[in-house]
Amino acid sequence: MRRLLTLITAMCVIGFAGVSFADSTANISITVQIQSLGVSVTPTSWVIGAVSTGSSQNSGSFSVTNTGNVAEDFQLNTGNSDNWNNANATAQGNSASVNLFTLGGLFDTEGTHNFAANDDVTNSTLTASGTTFSDGDATGVNVGVGASRLLWLRLGVPTAGSNTNAQTITTTITAIAH
Fold it and tell me: Residue 122 falls within a domain, yes or no?
């Protein structure tokens, strides 16, 4: 009898050793990060100097960088100076005239910059697209984290004006989530 009990005990131990039991709980790990938008521009100024009335002035490139943690689209708007107003304050496609300037913005690669009416920077914020602030080879759209785009500006100087003092025009670049 003792042998039989030992044999049964051994069989039970061996049998239970191969059986696994399901867990009664399971975990889901959730990782989240708050969206952060950011933009930087280098250089931060464009000093043109004295120019002729009615002329157009092209800037060098400005490097606009996504400093946020999500893909971004860039927006542009500009204000008036002390004595000049934006000819395209409310709508694109106008020309410089007396005390009215124009400002074009174009995300582009190195090379020729083909400014068009849809590149006019208004006093209202406009979002870059495949056609707005772009001539097709670069855009301010879906800019990856840490990525940069080159931006060129073109100033249309008023055809005449009542003030010959230096004017400062502030252009703002805003980042929005793509």
Answer: yes
